[in-house]
Specification:
Radius of gyration: 30 Å
Number of strands: 24
Structural class: alpha/beta
Helix content: 40-55%
Distance between the termini: 39 Å
Strand order of the largest sheet: 15-14-12-10-9-8-23-24
Largest sheet: 8 strands, mixed
Length: about 775
């Protein structure tokens, strides 16, 4: 068996993945099956050495399984403590500063009277320092889960970093002396370097420098961060493997050249890497790069050949053994994906195209990394910047110069205490030279990003691919790499394989987001409405989008949700009426140009209010076509049709009565979208539509389930199989009303609520209906 470490770690990863879905009660069955598999492997193994290697591999699998299930059991116990008061003792090991309050990372040693070894986030206005021993009385809270498709899941993110609870309503009982001398001293150095950046650079560039060199994104300019993300160079503003390799590797080779001793230079290099990692936080790509760099230095010292794949396997094993849930973290997967792309795909490319000029090698590496990480990018971010391949070819080499300048600027400023005392004269001039070079490079990066945004096909939005597409993509990539290495001498076969692989990748990419059904998603927008309809012909309709309880709905719910479904534009945005909880998010989408809106549809009423007119003016300003609907109007899109039942073109004293009420019809499927109509309007609809509309499949319950809507006569006439209520959790209006729920259950409707189920997704081929809720799928 060649490279046994790689195969052992693959089995370990399989154990981790299985452990995330298994319980302790199922562990015995799984281990019994593994033992049987082990004896079967012993039977078929022809050599004793092979049997031993298989046995070690099975041990790796069991370790991954047991460790992950143990973490699961711990999480389940801790989740039962949510909203309870407790006395917590521990040591402050990190700081997260926010605009409103401080967040401290605390390594807990005791909770009430029980010994406890976990990490928590302590949210408080009190001032602590790294290394402080604290004892607090606090309320234990769970982190928020994602309640919308495409939303950020804070709980999963924190779990992947080994943090399981947060402390709120904190009362300090004891505040002991600083005990973490090394960690606290490194934190002081970090603070001095931040102060130096603030002194030498402007506010925006200082925040970028702190993020790039120190891993502190607290004060990172939001617009610059978004600019880097949208252009595919966001990896520059994080402590990545690139940083560690540049700093640690360069230092090791410089010291070795200067003193000529491998052991001393290795010790200095490794010590610096470890201290730098402790100062910036041992997470993600930086930890992976540290482990690989230590292995490389060790191989150099002992005169052994450095094997990249074995080093990657070791890093993967160590990191998942420490924090198994990292396997679901985007940064973790992208980091390992990029390294594997360089180690496996680049050699295949060079084998297929043997005469590639050296000046194109940077482009080759960028393309291979993009090929390897593309499904991960689409799974977590739903789109990819097309020109990022070329952009990275330019910025990565320049980044090495920028990093040297920022490191010198920060270290020099920390030594002369720039920002604390005026350095003056030569001291200040030296720091300013490197600061001005850094400013120029930052301006160059920003100019490149803005130029990239002007190019055609800047961003390609595909949406989250199906899991089987991701599986087939990587399966095809593995097969391609394997057979390319076996047919190194046959040039014709290599060309044929390259062509077949390219065609297969194109087919898989196209199939990643081909809707075959009509999809309706009711987002969880808090107290408000927001419904996305995706038609089989790829058109996208947004029915309302606003909230009175949540801010930035357009950016954090609607934009992400629309991209999750593979769209970066909306064909029709329908505002049923001009209440804030129905249009605030749509207004933000248009005003900040987050999502392109092609047509805005408003109710045709005789007395539009100020908010209604503001929406009209905004649409005209951005060149969006306006359309008005009233009773009897229809909108036909392919096999789907929207028919308007309300309003009439008249004056409404209550704007809720003038809400657009629409029937969505697709083959044999129909859904009634009611806005905020009241019982009087419902009765008018019953009287007017008693022959045409009866026995619908899905009812969007009017006015968030208010007692003033969903009268029994109307509910009986509609007789829905499924009723969906968009309502805010613990809202002050008492929505949904008990009588509304009673009326719906009386006709046998299955009721879904966004405050309990999160976003509700309905898929139909026009005949069969499938309902999924994001919280029910956890």
């Amino acid at each position: 068996m060649k490279r046994p470490m790689i195969w052992w770690v693959i089995l370990f990863v399989l154990g981790v993945l299985l452990g995330t879905i298994c319980t302790m009660s199922q562990l015995g069955i799984v281990i019994a099956g593994v033992v049987l598999l082990f004896f079967w492997c012993l039977k078929i193994a022809n050599k004793q050495k092979g049997a031993v290697l298989w046995g070690v591999g099975i041990c790796f699998f069991v370790i991954g399984l047991v460790v992950t299930i143990g973490i699961n059991e711990k999480i389940q116990r801790l989740e039962q403590l949510g909203n309870q008061k407790a006395i917590v003792e521990g040591t402050v090991i990190g700081v997260e500063q926010t605009a409103t309050q401080n967040r401290y990372l605390v390594a807990v040693t005791k909770m009430d009277t029980d010994a406890c070894r976990i990490k928590v986030i302590c949210e408080t206005d009190n001032a602590y320092e790294i290394g402080d021993v604290i004892c607090v009385r606090a309320t234990l809270r769970l982190f928020d889960v994602a309640t919308n498709y495409g939303a950020f899941d804070e709980r999963q993110y924190r779990y992947s970093n080994g943090i399981y609870l947060r402390l709120t309503q904190v009362e300090t009982l004891r505040h002991g002396d600083n005990t973490e001398s090394l960690r606290s001293r490194l934190y002081v150095i970090r603070q001095r370097m931040q102060t130096a950046y603030n002194y030498y650079l402007n506010e925006t560039n200082a925040s970028l420098a702190s993020a790039m060199v120190l891993g502190d994104k607290t004060h990172l300019d939001a617009q610059i961060k978004e600019l880097y993300q949208e252009n595919g160079i966001a990896h520059l503003i994080a402590i990545s493997g690139l940083h560690i390799a540049m700093i640690g590797g360069t230092l090791y080779h410089l010291v070795r050249t200067a003193i000529g001793r491998y052991d001393v230079s290795a010790g200095i290099g490794i010590m610096f890497i470890v201290f730098y990692g402790m100062m910036t936080g041992l997470v993600g790509a930086s930890l992976r790069a540290m482990i690989m760099l230590v292995v490389m230095i060790g191989a150099d010292v002992f005169g052994r050949k450095y094997d990249v794949l074995s080093a990657v396997a070791l890093a993967l094993f160590v990191m998942l053994l420490w924090k198994p849930y990292q396997i679901y973290q985007a940064g973790f997967l992208l980091s390992f994906g990029a390294v594997l792309g360089i180690a496996l795909v680049v050699p295949v490319w060079n084998n297929l195209f043997e005469h590639t000029p050296k000046y194109l090698q940077g482009f080759v590496v960028s393309v291979c990394v993009q090929l390897t990480t593309l499904p991960i990018i689409l799974w977590y971010y739903y789109e990819f910047p097309f020109w990022s391949v070329l952009l990275n070819v330019i910025v990565v080499p320049v980044m090495s110069v920028l990093l040297v300048c920022l490191l010198f600027c920060g270290i020099w400023g920390a030594c002369v205490k720039a920002g604390q005392v005026a350095p003056g004269g030569l001291y200040e001039a030296i720091g300013m030279i490197f600061a001005r070079i850094s400013d120029g490079i930052f301006c160059f990066f920003e100019w490149l990003c803005k130029l990239s945004e002007k190019l055609p096909a800047h961003t390609i939005c595909v949406g989250r691919p199906a899991w089987w597409c991701v599986f087939l993509y990587y399966g095809a990539l593995v097969v391609f790499v394997f057979f390319s290495n076996r047919n190194q001498k046959n040039h014709k076969k290599k060309q044929q394989m390259a062509m077949i692989y390219g065609m297969l990748m194109i087919m898989l990419m196209l199939s990643m987001r081909i809707p075959r059904d009509l999809t309706v998603c009711m987002f969880d927008v808090g107290q408000g409405d927001g419904i996305l309809i995706e038609l089989p012909t790829r058109e996208c309709i947004l029915i309302d989008g606003g909230s009175s309880s949540e801010k930035q709905i357009g950016k954090y719910v609607l934009q992400n949700g629309i991209k999750y479904y593979g769209k970066n534009s909306v064909d029709y945005a329908v505002v049923t009426h001009s209440d804030q909880d129905h249009y605030s998010g749509i207004y933000q989408l248009i005003d900040e140009e987050l999502i392109a809106v092609k047509c805005l549809i408003l109710p045709k009423i005789a007395n539009p209010d100020e908010q209604y007119q503001a929406l009209e003016a905004l649409a005209r300003y951005h060149g969006i076509s306006l359309r008005y609907m009233k009773q009897g109007n229809q909108l036909q899109i392919g096999n789907a049709k929207l028919t308007c039942l309300n309003p009439s073109e008249k004056i409404y004293a209550d704007k809720n009565q003038g809400s657009l009420c629409l029937v969505l019809k697709y083959k044999q499927f129909d859904m009634l979208l009611t806005g905020d109509i009241d019982a009087e309007t419902e009765q008018n609809i019953v009287w007017e539509q008693q022959m045409q509309l009866k026995g619908i499949d899905v009812l969007k319950v009017a006015h968030h389930g208010s007692a003033t809507s969903s009268c029994l006569e109307f509910v009986k006439q509609m007789s829905p199989s499924i009723a969906v209520i968009s309502v805010g959790k613990n809202n002050t209006y008492g929505h949904p009303a008990k009588e509304t729920i009673t009326n719906l259950k009386q006709v046998g409707a299955k009721v879904y609520r966004t405050d309990q189920n999160g976003a509700v997704q309905i898929r139909t081929d026009g005949y069969q209906i499938k309902v999924d809720c994001i919280l029910n799928n956890r």
